[in-house]
Structure formats: structure tokens, C-alpha cells
Design brief:
The chain has 594 residues and is an alpha+beta fold. It folds into two domains: 270 residues, Beta-Lactamase (2-Layer Sandwich); 161 residues, 2-Layer Sandwich (Heat Shock Protein 90). It has eleven helices and 18 strands. Strand 3 and strand 4 form a beta hairpin. Bound molecules: adenosine-5'-diphosphate. The site of adenosine-5'-diphosphate has 20 residues, from helix 9 and helix 10.
């Protein structure tokens, strides 16, 4: 949204810069062209002005020379004599000599009436000007005693002539006129050497002398010299003409006045070269401008690219930063979540431990309950028997049959001994189960365990068969704890066979190399294949609530492993389960030492 106006502004700025550059280029071009033209024209003007001065001087010197010649000749005595002698005009005499020496075109004498008396051109056909009619203006002035002057304008085929006429005097009287005619052809020949076009204008603006012969006799207005470019007139007295005649080129026109005659000499200088040179200078300036503009454009483009790159980099960095931030916050969340989970697990574990402890306690109580039931049964039976034997013995003694009473007393003694034995076992069981490992007689363990389980076995009418070796087997362990294992295995087996029509449990003990192998097999339902891997797990039970805690096998497993043995469960092919306990055999002498 914000970018669009920005882009427009940037575009406008670029157009503005472009336009300014174009204007600057045009200005530089104009200044270069104008400056170089001005310098070249200044050089040209200096040369041309010097040349014009020289060429003007040529004209002036020529006219000056002959301006003096006619009065000088008129004053000479020989000339007056010529007039008086009345010699035929065909004899040029002194006039020819003077003309020859001075370089004048013609020198001739006329009487006061204007008739030619003598002429240097006598004998030259069509060479002479003739009488006073053709130089009337000069002749009349001479008759008035002045120096007569007259221009005889030229034509494209003939050069102009200039005539000076001086009065001839005898005493105070003017008796005739001496005229000197000068051809301006000499001046034109001198001017022809100049590369510039030079022409002299008389007071009426007619071309009198020129190095362009065709211009002779024409008015300056007829020459079509071209329009004066007034706004380019750079120097005083200089005009720039456009378009120019005669060549069609541009020209610079310079003027110089000839004071004595009131004429003006002008020169036309070709400025094509100067214009070409300024054109080249402009071209070079244009090239320089183009190169500079190109360089500037490259710089601007590079700068723009740099800025774009910078922007891209910044955007990427920003994106990265945002991603890192979002990842960090994700991680923080995950961390918090994990911490909470850890706390919950710890709490659950603590709860579990507490429950476990409670359950272990409950298991202990359950065992205690079972044991007290077994004990009360074990004690009640002999107690009842002792009572009846005692009563019978009393009655026999009263009747004086003391000898018979002895049998009863012997039975009483046997039962008391047995009860003492049970008490001894109980004492051993209640003794704190130590962690120390001693040699233990497996026969003794089996005897005590079966004794304790007797009531249960009887109640459930289970057929228990023992298959024991002749020699006792001594293993390393704790007696009470091993009894606990055997009791557990037997009581599980009794539980398992309780539903069988002929409940049967077999306990075997044998020696296998350095190991004692004790098995408890039953003909119960066996262990389901899918629960088999779990039966040693704590709290795993398939029994009803209250019937089993699922701790017996796990404790048994731990005890056997503590004594470096192993405990395994398998199913029998004929049905039922078998538990196999293996324990390392201890040195037999050790038990003897105990
Ligand atoms: P509890 O006897 O309290 O259930 P145990 O750890 O002693 O706990 O036994 C775990 C489970 O192992 C029993 O619930 C039972 O499913 C199975 N089990 C143990 N002994 C036998 C056996 N002889 N026959 C079949 N299943 C057995």
C-alpha cells in the first residue's frame, strides 16, 4: 500500500533527474559550441582585420600617389609650353614619359575648351578617354582651380578608373587642364592574392574595386551578401552573414573606411571552418556528456542494485530472526511442557512408591494372616490331642494303670516336641531376613516350607509328591528367603490346581553339575502364552481382587537372582505349569562348619 506512492515518487524523481541531465547536456553543448565558435572567430577576425587594413592601404597608397602626380606635372614649365606649342595631339611627348614612369594609365592635356592637346595614349587605338566630356566633373573642378577628381566606374569586364585633373596656369589664368587616369586594376590584382573576398564601395554604395570581377559596378544591395545575424555579432564592426553569397557559405563581414574618398572597403571571411570546428567541439562535448551520463547511469544502477541487495539481506535476516524467535518460543513451550511432564512423572513415581510400600505392607500382612491361620491349625490339632491324651493318662493313673498311661504321656511328649519345632521355625521366620549369604540346606528349606503349607494342601485336597535326592544339597543363600520362594511356588501351584479334578503338585530336587535344580510342577491350567512374559512383573496377577497381590513371583525372582540363581516358568506339554529354580551349589564342608 505504502510502496506504490513511493515507487511513483521515485519514478518522478528519475524523470526529473533525466530531464535535468538532458538540459545540462544541452547547455554544455551550447556553451562548448558557442565558446569554441567565439574563440575561432576571434582568431579569424584578427587575421582578417589585419589583411583588410593592408588591402585598404594598397588602395589608399595608389590613389595618394596619383593625387599628387597631376598638380606636380601641371606646375612644370614644360607642360605649359606643350599647350602653347600647338603640337599635334598624336605626339605624346612628355605625357607618355610621365605616364610610363609613374605607372598611370593615361596622362593628357586639354585646353580650356576641353579639347585634347596631347595625350600619352596618342596612337593607341581606343586607348584614350578623350576630351573633357567623359571627365566633366573633374574637368570643371580643375577649371575652377581645384584638384578635380572623378571615378570612372568599371564593369564586370573592365576595371574602374580614377581621374585626377589639375589646372594649367599661365600667370593667373587657367589655360588648360592636365588629367591623370589611374586604373584600379593594380589594386584588384593585389587583392586577388587575398583568400578573403574584398570589395570597395563608393559613396553611393556601388562596388568600385573588387577581387570578384563580376561585382564591379553593382550596388551592394544587389550582391545578395546575406542576412546579418545580429545576435551573433560578437565583435565591433563585424557582421556575420547568413546565408552568404557568392559561395553559399557563412561569412563574417569586416568594414574599413577610406577617409579621403569617403569609400568603404569590406572583406568577407569564410567562417565555414570555424563553424565546422565548433561542430566538432560540440560533438566531442556530446560524446563526453554521453560517456559521463552512461557512467552516471551505471553508478546509479549499481547503487540501486546495492540498495536492493541490502534490503533483501535485511529482509532475510528479519525472517530468520522471526523464525528463530518462533522456534525459541516453540522450544520454550515444549520445555515447559516437558518440565510439567517430568514433575507429573515424579509425582506419579512418588505415588507409585507410596502405593508399592503400602502394598508390600499389605502383602506382609497377608502372609502373616496365612501363617497365623496355618499356625493356629498346626497348634490346635496337637493341643486337642495333648488334652485328650492327658485326660486319658489321668484317668489311667487314677485307676492305677500308670503303665498304660505312659504311652499317652509318650505321645504327649512327641506332640510337644513337634510344637516346639514349629515354634522354632516360626522364630526363624520372624527373625529379620539378613542380607548375608550363608550355606543353606535345601532339604531343610523344603521341609519347613511344606510344613507351613500343610493346612492349605490338606484343605484343598491336593496330592503333593516330593522327589528328593538321598543326599542333601547345600546352596548359598538365606534360608528364610529361600523358604519364602518355595512357599510361594508351592502355594501358586496349589491355587492353580484347585479347580482340577485330581489336583496334583510335584516338587523335585536334583543336582545338575554345580547347580541345584528345584522344580514345582502342577496339573493346573498352565500359564497363558500372552501373560507368560509378565508373570515376574510386580503386581501382575490373574487372581481376583483380594485373592492375589501379584508380588509373590516378583519377590521370588529377585531373591533367587540375589543368590546368583535363576527362576523360569514354562508350560508342560501334558498341561499345567512348571517353575524351575537353579542355584549354585555351595561347598558342603561349609554347612558342617556352621
Ligand atoms: P499372585 O499369586 O498373588 O497372583 P504371583 O506373583 O505369585 O502373584 O503370581 C502371579 C501370577 O502368575 C498369578 O496370578 C498367576 O496368574 C500366575 N501363576 C503363578 N503360578 C502359576 C501356576 N502354577 N499356574 C498357573 N499360573 C500361575
Amino acid at each position: 500500500m505504502i510502496r506504490k506512492p513511493l515507487r511513483q515518487t521515485w519514478r518522478k524523481l528519475k524523470i526529473g533527474i533525466g530531464a535535468s541531465l538532458l538540459l545540462a547536456t544541452l547547455l554544455i553543448l551550447w556553451l562548448t559550441g558557442f565558446g569554441s565558435l567565439r574563440i575561432t572567430l576571434a582568431e579569424l577576425e584578427t587575421g582578417a582585420r589585419a589583411n583588410l587594413a593592408v588591402q585598404t592601404a594598397v588602395l589608399e597608397r595608389l590613389l595618394d600617389k596619383f593625387r599628387l602626380l597631376s598638380p606636380l606635372l601641371a606646375r612644370g614649365p614644360d607642360i605649359s609650353d606643350l599647350l602653347n606649342e600647338g603640337r599635334p595631339p598624336q605626339d605624346p611627348g612628355i605625357t607618355a614619359i610621365a605616364a610610363g614612369m609613374s605607372g598611370a594609365e593615361e596622362i593628357w592635356l586639354m585646353d580650356a575648351a576641353g579639347n585634347v592637346v596631347v595625350s600619352s595614349q596618342a596612337g593607341v587605338p581606343a586607348g584614350s578617354i578623350g576630351g573633357a566630356d567623359q571627365i566633366r566633373q573633374a574637368f570643371d573642378l580643375a577649371l575652377q582651380g581645384q584638384l578635380g577628381r572623378q571615378l570612372l566606374p568599371g564593369t564586370p569586364v573592365r576595371a574602374s578608373n580614377y581621374v585626377f585633373a589639375s589646372p594649367l596656369r599661365q600667370g593667373n589664368e587657367i589655360t588648360g587642364v592636365l588629367a591623370v587616369r589611374v586604373s584600379l586594376d593594380d589594386v584588384e590584382q593585389a587583392w586577388a592574392l587575398s583568400k578573403d573576398t574584398i570589395f570597395a564601395l563608393d559613396t553611393s554604395g556601388r562596388v568600385v574595386v573588387s577581387n570578384v570581377p563580376e561585382w564591379r559596378g553593382k550596388l551592394v544591395s544587389e550582391l545578395n551578401l546575406g542576412r546579418d545575424i545580429a545576435d551573433l555579432s560578437l565583435f565591433e564592426g563585424v557582421e556575420l552573414l547568413l546565408p552568404a553569397a557568392p559561395t553559399g557559405d557563412h561569412h563574417m563581414q569586416l568594414k574599413e573606411d577610406v577617409a579621403v574618398l569617403g569609400w568603404q572597403v569590406r572583406s568577407l571571411v569564410d567562417i565555414t571552418d570555424a563553424r565546422q570546428r565548433s561542430g566538432w567541439a560540440m560533438l566531442v562535448a556530446l560524446l563526453v556528456c554521453v560517456i559521463m551520463a552512461g557512467g552516471l547511469a551505471i553508478l546509479i544502477a549499481r547503487r540501486a542494485e546495492f540498495v536492493r541487495q541490502e534490503r533483501r539481506t535485511r529482509a532475510a535476516a528479519l525472517r530468520l530472526e522471526r523464525r528463530v524467535q518462533s522456534r525459541t518460543s516453540d522450544l520454550r513451550k515444549a520445555n515447559t511442557h516437558l518440565e510439567r511432564e517430568v514433575r507429573e512423572r515424579e509425582q506419579a513415581e512418588a505415588n507409585l512408591r507410596l502405593t508399592q510400600a503400602e502394598l508390600v505392607q499389605a502383602a506382609k500382612l497377608a502372609t502373616l494372616g496365612r501363617m497365623s491361620a496355618a499356625l493356629s491349625h498346626e497348634y490346635n490339632q496337637p493341643l486337642a490331642a495333648i488334652r485328650s491324651d492327658a485326660e486319658i493318662a489321668g484317668m489311667l493313673i487314677e485307676r492305677g494303670r500308670a503303665g498304660e498311661a505312659k504311652t499317652n504321656l509318650g505321645r504327649i511328649e512327641g506332640m510337644v516336641t513337634r510344637m516346639a519345632e514349629i515354634a522354632k521355625t516360626l522364630k526363624g521366620f520372624t527373625r529379620k531376613s539378613g542380607t548375608d549369604i550363608k550355606p543353606v540346606s535345601l532339604r531343610q528349606v523344603i521341609d519347613e516350607a511344606t510344613l507351613l503349607l500343610q493346612p492349605q494342601i490338606k484343605q484343598k485336597k491336593v496330592d503333593l509328591s516330593l522327589d528328593l535326592p538321598d543326599a542333601d544339597i547345600i546352596v548359598k543363600g538365606g534360608r528364610i528367603r529361600l523358604e519364602q520362594v518355595v512357599i510361594n511356588l508351592l502355594s501358586n501351584a496349589v491355587d492353580a490346581v484347585s479347580g482340577s479334578p485330581l489336583p496334583h503338585v510335584t516338587l523335585t530336587l536334583k543336582r545338575d553339575n554345580q547347580e541345584a535344580v528345584l522344580t514345582v510342577s502342577d496339573n493346573g491350567p498352565g500359564i497363558d502364552a500372552d501373560v507368560l512374559p509378565q508373570i515376574f512383573d510386580p503386581f501382575f496377577t490373574t487372581k481376583d481382587v483380594g485373592a492375589g497381590l501379584g508380588l509373590g513371583l516378583s519377590i521370588a525372582y529377585k531373591i533367587v537372582h540375589d543368590f546368583s540363581g535363576s527362576l523360569k516358568a514354562t508350560n508342560l506339554d501334558e498341561g499345567g505349569a512348571r517353575f524351575t529354580m537353579r542355584l549354585p551349589i555351595a561347598d558342603e564342608t561349609a554347612l558342617a562348619a556352621e
